[in-house]
Amino acid sequence: MTIAFTPLFTELGTLARVAGDIEMFQNGTLTTDLNNVAGQWSSLQAYAEPFWPNRTSFQAALSAGNTLLQQVAATILTYTVNADQPLVAQGDVPGALSELIRQMNLNAQTVKRSTITASSSAYANNVGNGIVVTSVKQPSGLLNELIVPETARLICTADGQPGGGATAGNETFQFQGAVAAPGIFDPTYPQGSGATATLTVINAANNNDGLTVLQNGNFETWTVANIPDKWTITGGGVAGTNILENTNATYVYLGSASLQIKGDSSTLAGVKQLFNSASTGTAFNPTPNSQLAFNAFVTVDVTPATGVLEVALIDGNNNVINDQQGIANSFTQSLTGLTSGVFVAINGVFRLPNDLPTSISLRIRQSTAISSGKSAFVDFAAWGPMTELYGNGMGPSIAIFAAKVNFITGSYSATTADGFSVVTTNSYCGAVNHLLSFQSAFDALYNTSGLGLLLPSTTGSPTLTNTLI
Fold this sequence. Notes:
Strand content: 15-25%
Strand order of the largest sheet: 2-19-4-5-6
Number of domains: 2
CATH superfamily of the largest domain: Galactose-binding domain-like
Helix content: 10-25%
Oligomer: single chain
Order of helices and strands: HHHHHHEEEEEEEEEEEEEEEEEEEHHE
Distance between the termini: 25 Å
Largest sheet: 5 strands, antiparallel
CATH architecture of the largest domain: Sandwich
Number of helices: 8
């Protein structure tokens, strides 16, 4: 048997519409009318008590009806699912939701997908010049569609200065989301996540320290000429011809050496580091369903006419590994727009699937051959776990990478701590109210974010449209 999706979503859509209407009335006509009343009495405010300080109670009182909507929604869902699958008990909302999502996936049923973004910008007075990498996806590759739109802060709270409380290059940062609304039905929702999290900066100079998982990611150690320790040459490259140790300071980002990849217009040479191999690579053993960020710094000696650098996770046959959603774990950087001796940060996010191959490596190589005689230089590469900010798997994830200048708390050479503004957005499918899109409506009715559940969704044409609300 199969759940009757359209009737179910139509019934639940009517409940979401009521909740949305209440919230829009609270924020619209009711707010205007209350302010008009207050305005009429503004010159006689002393006589307007107790209305004046308690006028928002009118708005809050309307929200009480939403508890009834949740109860009715729970009954409709569990009754419908139990009628199709008696093994799911009536009243078991988490079980009913899981079964609903399972059947939606089996029957290609989807709701409209929201557009979610996350970005960061460094404070103008920052001393440190490290890099923040953000992700709005889960380790599974699913888009976290219940991310709360807000402008949050990421502040350095411990540094490597004397008495600073941290190690230089591994500074501590605190994430602070904007103040959250009292609840998802509150007329002020969404105000912010209210989330807090502590992050430690990932330093490429370290070796598999639990933050960066790479060995010799800063390419400082070369026991064998022109072969970086713990890395293997790949793609038909030859040590001393395509892969070289560079010690020319112009093309070193930090330290005394960098990886030089020299083009010949045909060979797709590069290097790779094997995981779960302490002797030839790194002892780090990737785990299924995990999310890690990569960052490195790249420049060229002469701007090439052709050349693209690729960073990827590969299996033992040099095939790029896909995440659980079938998306390739790779990203590229064109070299044709780079300036000689000017390093740029390149970064991306990789997500390990549930079923891992027996051999996994991180590969840095040319995916389009570099012009003959021209070279790219890679330095200070790190790959490390991201921190999910809400603590329930449903929020954005962040990793911070050290760079040439360390972060500080502001106790020494600056008056304020280094930090970043972190902005997240949620389109709610373009609905005039967040309760009028199914993904958010289910969160309001069933607390799907607390359960770690998302309805299957699509950016294309969904089978269960928001017009059912």
